[in-house]
Design goal:
With 342 residues, the protein is α/β, with parallel strands linked by helices. The chain has one domain: Aldolase class I (TIM Barrel), CATH 3.20.20. It is built from 13 helices and 10 strands. The strands form 2 sheets. An 8-stranded parallel β-sheet has the order 8-7-6-3-2-1-10-9. The chain has a two-stranded antiparallel sheet with strand order 4-5.
Length: 342
């Protein structure tokens, strides 16, 4: 794929009014989600759930791309159409999570490094054959006593850039995800300082490793108070601090920023995104790449029962629509009540 095609894909993923569905939960993660609705996680139940999401009528109005898991990209819909082909046929770009998960970083208690670079070039070639047009790699940074260390920040930044370079070489748009976890009692000021440091390191490595910034997307955390902090920052403060961080660290060449929801409630993730877009225009498209924050209402409505399929799809459609409104800075909490009544 040429630079021109990569750029077109990156821009399509952050098209106005649209964002990305992260449906790349590992087998362990989706098992926990299914446990919340008393459903056994099997290959068939996972396939049925993803099929429900991917075949929701009209959702392509608000969903530009879907991040798949290795198992999912190899699966097919009820009518035999491969999921990647089904999505592409609806104008939704199929993507794939390619990292192998965060493991303990050697000689760094409490810190992690994401693995998966070995054999990545070959895996990327296979995923492209299977229909993927973009990729995702997540690094995890923890805030705690005397952490994160520079060692942890730079090791993860280096791995993210190596992954991004290999993705572009394979003709795939990389989504670079340095997630600063919001677990803890830290203030929003601490979250800002760490997130800013991490983003600075990531873009230093991306530049040094020859990654074309126009042909990638950034998937960062929003700058929030720690979840156990005594005082939670307001929506306005989260928007201001997050934007301040991005303006200081993310080059305007990057076409889009697709936020992760990071354990926020469905409503807050949407409200924060809307508040940032209301302060625009910005050098980049500000969009979403949400997993649980898009799926939770649908999962709760479905409960593994085929009779609830349409109700679950309506719940998913409404959540996607509300985030579509947030892309224009036009979301309000009143819209939640309209969705609930529909």
């Amino acid at each position: 794929m040429s630079h021109h095609e990569l750029r077109d894909t990156a821009e399509a993923l952050v098209a106005p009014g649209k964002g990305i569905l992260a449906a790349d939960e590992s087998t362990g993660t989706i098992e926990k989600r299914f446990r919340s609705i008393d459903l056994e996680s099997t290959e068939e139940s996972r396939k049925a759930y993803r099929d429900l999401l991917f075949t929701t009528d009209g959702v392509e109005e608000f969903i530009s791309g879907v991040i798949l898991y290795d198992e999912t990209i190899r699966q097919s819909s009820g009518d035999g159409t491969r999921f990647a082909e089904l999505l592409a046929g609806r104008g939704i770009v199929p993507g794939i999570k390619v990292d192998k998960g965060a493991k303990q970083l050697a000689l760094a208690p409490g810190e992690k490094i994401t693995e998966g670079l070995d054999g990545l070039r070959e895996r990327l070639a296979e995923y492209r054959e299977l229909g993927a047009r973009f990729t995702k790699w997540r690094a995890v940074i923890t805030i705690g006593e005397r952490i994160p260390s520079e060692y942890c920040i730079w090791t993860n930044a280096h791995a993210l850039a190596r992954y991004a370079a290999l993705s572009q070489e394979a003709g795939l748009v990389p989504i670079v995800e340095p997630e600063v976890l919001m677990d803890g009692e830290h203030t929003i000021e601490t979250a800002y300082r760490v997130t800013s440091r991490v983003q600075n390191a990531v873009f230093t490595e991306l530049h040094d490793q020859r990654v074309e910034l126009e042909d990638m997307l950034l998937k960062p955390n929003m700058v929030l108070s720690g979840y156990d902090a005594a005082e939670q920052a307001s929506v306005d403060e989260v928007a201001e601090q997050t934007l301040r961080c991005l303006y200081r660290n993310v080059p305007a060449a990057v076409p889009g920023i697709v936020f992760l929801s990071g354990g926020q409630s469905d409503e807050l993730a949407t409200e924060h995104l809307s508040a940032m877009n209301a302060r625009g225009p910005h050098p980049w498209q500000l969009s979403f790449s949400y997993g649980r924050a898009l799926q939770a209402p649908a999962l709760k409505a479905w409960r593994g029962d085929t009779g609830n399929r349409e109700t679950a799809q309506r719940a998913f459609y409404h959540r996607a629509k509300l985030n579509g409104a947030a892309r224009y800075g036009e979301y309000t909490r009143e819209m939640e009540d309209v969705a609930a009544a529909a």
